[in-house]
Hints:
33% of the residues lie in helices and 23% in strands. It is of the alpha/beta class. It is globular. Residues 5-147 form the Isochorismatase-like domain.
Amino acid sequence: MSKQALIVVDIQNDYFPQGKWPLVGAEAAADNAARLIEAFRQAADQVVHIRHEFTSDSAPFFTPGSEGAQLHPKVLNRTDEPVVLKHFVNSFRETQLQAILDRHDIKHLVIVGSMSHMCIDGVARAAADMGYEVTVIHDACASRDLEFNGLVVPAAHVHAAFMSALGFAYADVVSTEQFLAARH
């Protein structure tokens, strides 16, 4: 089995019920992410946290230096776990993520976090294009209702559409239970 890392993407305060941009299922996704973080820690596998901040105070959420842009307490990093600050959807763009993965000879990325239709999609596709083996843990990701051309698309449908697309050609898409059972 290739060396793997858990990539915890944007599980930040603004995505929770009291935040500026709440997601449907954020609490349940964070609970599953926390279970995965613990499993990776117990196995001494790498955990990398991604934290998004926009570069402008006028951003709708994740404004620079705000409490909303901080990692959520359910998934706080340990001192030996890097936190990669990003300013774009793709966690590899203008960050140290690839250098961290290369330094630890990581070949397989296990991805959890938010939002399914943006940063999870972005990092999973980029990782696959870069040659990583990719697994997305679907029930450790969250999304929100979207609107297109007057049609409201419920968060569950948004999430399902993006997980389905990723599973078609970019990643193995499995549940927390499936992933943890396969590790034993």
